[in-house]
Amino acid sequence: NAGVTQTPKFRVLKTGQSMTLLCAQDMNHEYMYWYRQDPGMGLRLIHYSVGEGTTAKGEVPDGYNVSRLKKQNFLLGLESAAPSQTSVYFCASSYLGTDTQYFGPGTRLTVL
Amino acid sequence: AQSVTQPDIHITVSEGASLELRCNYSYGATPYLFWYVQSPGQGLQLLLKYFSGDTLVQGIKGFEAEFKRSQSSFNLRKPSVHWSDAAEYFCAVGAGGYSTLTFGKGTMLLVSP
């Protein structure tokens, strides 16, 4: 039982490049989330999903896209990376919206 | 919409001393409240949560928190801090149902010898 896993763990991009972050959970959770964590800002919700095939915008969605084609996977895409997207990205999952969220180990992304 | 305030950015506590981390929330009805801990380089781990019932909740690692509706607070406490408790602590609030959580900006706990 791996819980929530994220790949990759680290990534360096140049401005304008694209990439996809993968989140996988094996707990059969309905809800999945993508957050970004920046110093002094806490966790801010980028996008979330309440079930397979559905996605919704969070607090800071601009510049990101997501997809949830399978219940266990939640992908976060950056189409044209910008230095402002340098951050640590966390994926989480929960059974319902206000249940305990289980977090992955994070992906540290640097955009040069 | 709900919001969370953690007034203290950093707190330093001597090992063996007691700890209280403050959390104030804004929400009109009874909130769902959480405390998470994040060790350096790690994801967040749930310490405890309050949904309803007894306003004093016990969590892992000897932590407890008390929900005070009149003060809109959910402060985290521990009677005796260990060096391994040094980490960042996040309070979060949810509105119930299909809503998402709102996290505070975090409090960094430093433990001195």
Which keywords apply here?
heterodimer; A: 112 residues; seven-stranded mixed sheet; 0% helix; B: 113 residues; mainly beta; four-stranded antiparallel sheet
Task: Characterise this structure.
The complex is a heterodimer of chains A (112) and B (113). Chain A has 112 residues and is mostly beta strands. Chain A has no helices and eleven strands. Chain A has strands at 4-7, 10-13, 19-25, 31-38, 42-49, 56-57, 65-67, 73-78, 87-94, 102-103, 107-111. In chain A, the strands form two sheets. In chain A, strands 2, 4, 5, 6, 9, 10 and 11 form a seven-stranded mixed β-sheet that branches. In chain A, strands 1-3-8-7 form a four-stranded antiparallel β-sheet, with no helix packed on it. Chain A is globular. Helices cover 0% and strands 52% of the residues of chain B. Chain B is built from no helices and twelve strands. Chain B is mainly β and 113 residues long. Chain A binds chain B through residues 4, 33, 35, 40-45, 48, 50, 58, 90, 92, 96-98, 100-106, and chain B through 9, 32, 34, 36, 41-46, 49, 51, 90, 94-101, 103-106.
Calculate the mean pLDDT score of chain A and round it: 94
The number of helical segments of chain B is 0
Q: What is the H/E string of chain B?
A: EEEEEEEEEEEE
Radius of gyration of chain B: 13 Å
The parts of chain B where pLDDT drops under 50 for at least 5 residues are none
Task: Give Rg of chain A in angstroms.
Answer: 13 Å
How far is the first residue's CA from the last residue's CA of chain B?
Answer: 41 Å
Considering residues with a beta carbon less than 8 A from a beta carbon on another chain, report the largest interface and each chain's count.
A-B, 24 and 25 residues
The main sheet of chain A comes to: 7 strands, mixed
Measured between the Cα atoms of the first and last residue of chain A, the distance is 36 Å
H-E string of chain A = EEEEEEEEEEE
